Amino acid sequence: xxxxxxxxxxxxxxxxxxxxxxxxxxxxxxxxxxxxxxxxxxxxxxxxxxxxxxxxxxxxxxxxxxxxxxxxxxxxxxxxxxxxxxxxxxxxxxxxxxxxxxxxxxxxxxxxxxxxxxxxxxxxxxxxxxxxxxxxxxxxxxxxxxxxxxxxxxxxxxxxxxxxxxxxxxxxxxxxxxxxxxxxxxxxxxxxxxxxxxxxxxxxxxxxxxxxxxxxxxxxxxxxxxxxxxxxxxxxxxxxxxxxxxxxxxxxxxxxxxxxxxxxxxxxxxxxxxxxxxxxxxxxxxxxxxxxxxxxxxxxxxxxxxxxxxxxxxxxxxxxxxxxxxxxxxxxxxxxxxxxxx
Length: 342
Prior knowledge:
The protein has 342 residues and is of the alpha+beta class. The protein folds into three domains: 9-68, no CATH class; 84-230, no CATH class; 238-339, Arc Repressor Mutant, subunit A (Orthogonal Bundle). It is 53% helix and 11% strand. The protein is built from 17 helices and seven strands. It has helices at 12-26, 28-37, 54-68, 84-92, 98-110, 142-160, 179-185, 203-206, 214-223, 226-230, 238-246, 256-263, 267-276, 281-299, 304-310, 316-327, 331-339; strands at residues 9-11, 51-53, 116-123, 126-133, 166-170, 189-191, 197-202. The strands form two sheets. A five-stranded mixed beta sheet has the order 3-4-7-5-6. A two-stranded antiparallel ribbon has the order 1-2. Strand 3 (116-123) and strand 4 (126-133) form a beta hairpin. Helix 11 crosses helix 14 (281-299). It starts with 8 loop residues before the first strand and ends with a helix.
């Protein structure tokens, strides 16, 4: 196996959150049709441990946004109509620095949001952008808050032409069951139960000048939300480092001791750091095998039996049972569903 990056999957919980407004307003039939358009088997929604691919996530996001005419999927108090991101981005192109662009970003969104307002502050070399409730008791939608933080970072990074450093991201809601997805999606440290949802960016990066032309914007908009959701992810976490270590050795029975030796730390220290990130060594290994399996089933014609051996399973039956636990589908059904959207 080549040591090439594998596109990570994300929890089906994100799918549930993305579909919530549509389900409430348009019913289950509209949900079923939208899932089919995105190539996501409806059965996955009943599987708490199921995963969807990056491509499925993007396809579903676009399908819901088009169906609702809402670029934020009904997650805020009023619809964010189609074209909003385009005009936001056009308004940022002529700003001289990222700092000025972010200030304009804040003012733009504060014209649209009723339940929250964005606030930008600066202290000790850090630029903080926070979502602050306009009134006590404002509804907290975890996906909406997460998307806004991703949009802040994704837009600023695209304008600058490189990833802007993130010191930390804090969310005002409780630590979710699928916390590892947040660790993956957000560079920098991630915490929960904060007073306000906040992203902290490096001030030096924000003070940088940039130059982007209008013709460069069209590709960014066409790919949305992919660039601002997935272009910048956390590659510095222990889970990410473990995945990089394991990927070329995935067929081998690698132990946590071998990982500890490679990282020059003790097993005890590793175990504690895994727990801090909400995961464990074996879980990271299983998640890597799951993501390689999803990637191969989607992008190659490798047989299920060969894939099982490539991933270190004793036989295809054991692999098929594990894959169904991971995704809610058999490898064969998953491959068919994923390719139906090609």
